[in-house]
Task: structure prediction
Amino acid sequence: MNESTPLIDDLAPTPPHPTRFALPTMTPDQQVTWLTAFTNALAHATESTFGLCLERCLIPAIADAYSLEVMLPDGSIRTHSAAHGVSPLPTTPDDAALGRRRAATILAAIAQVIHSGQPLFNRLHSMLVGPSLSEPTTLTFDHGAIVPLLIQGEAIGALSIGSMRAEWPYLADDGGFLGEIAARIAFALDNQRLRRQLADAVEARDATLVIVAHELRTPLAALITQMQLLRRRMQDIELHDERTLQGLALLDQQARRLNLLVDALFDATQLNHQPRRFAHERFDLGRTIQRVHDSFAGVLINHSLHLDLCADAVLIDGDALRIEQALQNLLHNAVKYSPHGGAIELCLERHDAHARIIISDEGIGIPVADRDRIFERFYRAKNAVSHGINGVGIGLYIVHAIIALHNGTIQVAETPEAGATFIVELPLADTQRRSPNQTS
Ligand code: ADP
Result:
């Protein structure tokens, strides 16, 4: 082949073929079956296996070579992937300059397809199959087509295919089979782009949260220490101004709440990547629950807290402080989501192989549709928002992670009446497990 050989024999789209295009090797039924398998394969391909997936699916079923070009945000065109099967007509000439000129012509044709949104069908079809545009490898085939990858009418790239087989003329197919193939590739690429954007956004958000949580911790710690010093000094000088003491107690309480929230923010970003160290000790869950109860009972005003512990020790292996943190979160929610007050029940039962903790309140409850999702990070039920109750949606995510790290489960129980009931189950320490026919 010399330089005068037409690379793209006619840049204008070939007039539509009178009959609907069908690859002679596939009947329309076979095409449908093939498209279904193709869609499945694309759905399972990752960004790194996408090219291989195209190669395996397209060659030789549809073509002897393919190249996929995508348009970058700056409008330039990049080869995403390319592969070829049988040996094509004349290979790339040794002359690099000629190779680059040929590549430029092919790119111009691809750009035309992308900008016009119209396919091109060629005889003597040259394609880019090389690894990069700086060292392009071009091959020429008997027949070829360049089909736009359209998303809502906008082309995001183009698929080029080439064939050496005389019985495979890629005639204009009025967007039929080749159009279907291109649409599926476009859809899969667009999905990958969206997933990548989502992952980037989540990463950026987590990075910001870590910085915010970290930056807030230091001044908060100083604030809490100063508050404690002030309270102690007031005790030392026997200053009994009731209002000042109350104000200080409130400041102290709010600063601690803020501290818990900052800790929770930090945990929410960390637990996802690398769980912080967990203690592995044997502890009595009853005592932990008693401690949580006592820390709440003294400060509740509109709520009554009822504790129902079983008489025996309930031994658990794990991190008592983490379990305490999880239960505090659940109780805190029980108070927060029952803005008009009411009774809160905290109950511990011992079963054959597990301990069960039940926490229920008489508040706004959780709509059935939201129950599966409230353990997701940043998820909030619709009624929490409509009741104007503030929150960020990370508390339950952390609770769930802590319970899971103890091989336990947490779920929202069916509540026939108003309010929410959470059931936590944790495996008992080995020494306490009873076989089913053992009596207590
Ligand atoms: P936050 O309370 O900061 O929104 P959580 O992760 O603790 O975050 O809770 C997630 C969501 O679960 C809440 O936004 C709320 O919709 C729902 N929720 C949790 N506990 C209760 C409860 N006791 N009663 C009603 N809804 C609750």
Q: What stands out?
A: Residues 333-334, 337, 361, 363-366, 374, 380-381, 384, 391-397, 420 surround adenosine-5'-diphosphate (CB under 6 Å). The first helix runs from residue 28 to 44.
